[in-house]
Amino acid sequence: MKPSGPRTPVLAAVSDASPRRSTDGSSDAPRARILLVDDTPSNLLALEAILEPLGQHVVSVRSGDEALKALLLDEYACVLMDVQMPGLDGLETARLVRTRERTKHLPIIFITALSREAAYVTRGYEYGAVDYLLKPVDPDILRAKVSVFVELYLRGEKLREQALELAERRRVEEELQRATELEQQLVGIVGHDIRTPLAAILTTANAQLSREALPEGQRKAFERVARGGERIQGIVDQLLDFTRARVGGGIPVVPGAGDLNELCRKLVDELRAARPERSILCDFVRDSLPGVWDLDRMAQVVANLLDNALKYSPRDTPVRLRTYEQGVDSVYLEVQNAGAPIPAQLLPTLFEPFRRGDGPGKRESLGLGLYIARSIVEAHGGTLRVESTPDVGTIFSLCLPRQALVEARAHSLCAPLTA
């Protein structure tokens, strides 16, 4: 038996508790705690010196009681414990450690100067030891054994962190999914509930406007009702398209054979009739520009680009619409307007939803038009981009494959143009 030393009533770490630099030279690398338990300070110092090259956080205590307190406060990779200590010896301390669920599987290495009697060694294993070393301890062997437990501990900690991150990611994804489903339901409900009474309003207004003997005051009133109803109808349509594009897997398109130039002529004629004071110039390289697209959806795109060009350009300047082809597989459409260029800080987010420009139509716009337009173009396998400078004004350039690539957008010839 060793001579009894003074008992330490409180937890006293002989080693410096401040973080040390890891062996890889990085102070930010994760480190494990190693608990040393021995009632002789010189033995603790010797063990600390042996374990110093591992670069881990070594905590030293001088009794079994202090060891139990330390294990209550922190997590440890392993424990190096002297067997013969006054009061609560190493074997009894290990037994108590094993009774707690948190430290039930904590690796304990016994270090002792006792003889090699098999019965005593067996007793140490029964009390929870994973290894048994006799003094004097070979430094290389001790470091090798401890480094194994440190590596296992750090791997376990990394796996636990990854599991927590995965659980948090799944929780966030589930919340986003629930929010998405709620958004879809709300927009669907609002769209359906608004469409029904709105259809009745528009039908009534149009029926009254078709009467020849309608007094002028009533006619103007019903015209205002019809215009307001059509604007509400447009807003509902945009919200539904936004929901499809954002959370519904993209805006659906139904391609069919058609002529892009013919579509452009119809839209320009309608805009000229609605805004006779504005000039819209068409430049078609070919009279006909056939292809396979969803013409109803493409009408949304072209109408939006023309409407924006008219809205955000001086009244005395023309808006230019140009179409041409390149090879036999792709066609192009450009809408250009004069006036002040789009501010550079707005260009990176111009096609994002709820982005509105500064102009006379800002209050009437939800800021969804360009987002929906690009979504429709991309659903065809095409691209939509913008250039805006003081020299050329603002040009929206649209590239479409001759045949809409609904299922193979990655092979579109227009894709490289976005670079």
UniProtKB/TrEMBL annotation:
Which residues lie in coiled coils?
none
Positions of the Response regulatory domain = 33-150
Record flagged with keyword Transferase: yes
Top-level division of the source organism's lineage: Bacteria
Its UniProt entry gives the catalysed reaction(s) as: ATP + protein L-histidine = ADP + protein N-phospho-L-histidine
Disordered: region residues: 1-28
Query: What's its top-level EC category?
Result: transferase
Query: Boundaries of each Histidine kinase domain copy?
Result: 189-404
Residues recorded with modification 4-aspartylphosphate: D82
- Could you give a GO molecular-function term held by this entry? phosphorelay sensor kinase activity
TM ranges are: none
Sorted UniProt keywords = Kinase, Phosphoprotein, Transferase
EC number in record: 2.7.13.3
State the protein's name. histidine kinase
Organism listed in the record = Corallococcus interemptor
